[in-house]
Give the backbone structure.
Amino acid sequence: MKKGLIWFSFFGLVALALSAGSLYGQGAEPAAGTLVTETGEKMETPAPTGTGSQFIFVVFQSGLMSFILWLALFASGGAGVYFATDCAITVRPDKILPQKLIDAVTQAMAEGDVLKALKACDDEPGPLANVLSAGFSHVEEGFDVIEEAISTAADMETEKLMQKLTWLSVCANLAPMLGLLGTVQGMIMAFATLAGGAPDVGMLALSIAQALYTTAGGLVIAIPCVTTYYIFRNKANRTVLRMEALTMEMIKDLRHVEVVED
């Protein structure tokens, strides 16, 4: 499962890079033409390089530090795709609250068979099963202990879900910072070129392009990650609240269990 997720993330990153290159290259390939001067002389004008080609040129020709920065940006994008895909698979109501487990535990509690309910939790492992198992394991200690055990287990399962989302938030925050670092580096290179006297126009343009492309790259990665983070966070919060309410509903019959002193 993890290997498949990694491959999916890799292909998602490739698709993201291709779409970004396509976006940068839209309408950027005017054809060569003929220029007529004031004296009537005809001059052939070559076709300018497209923006997509400029992007590749900026990535590979801006120096070692810039290339490492671009690798970090691509890694951040790949990690964002990976964690977003992982959240899409794991942060689902039917994954956290399987209906089969709910039906089995409800039937077992209606029959007053706690062992059968524990067996159902073992057969359907997951967040809800872990919370219910924590409560059923303390059934002989009274309802107050059961509630405390369930509350502790629910907090742990909630933290596990939020940790997955936290990594997605890290990618969302890291990408624009890397883009800003590339912007600062590009501006430093540009002013260093100007400081040398008569500037090399090509180097000046390359430095400014580096600054702008890294900013755009950081935003292209950060915007989907931020959006995805808040979508999954809200879904996780709703699911956790539903899990807590459902758990208390299923164990309410244990309120009347009597604790026998040895």
In short: The longest strand covers residues 33-36. Residues 5-11, 13-38, 42-49, 258-262 have pLDDT under 50 and may be disordered. The radius of gyration is 29 Å. The beta strands are 33-36, 42-45.
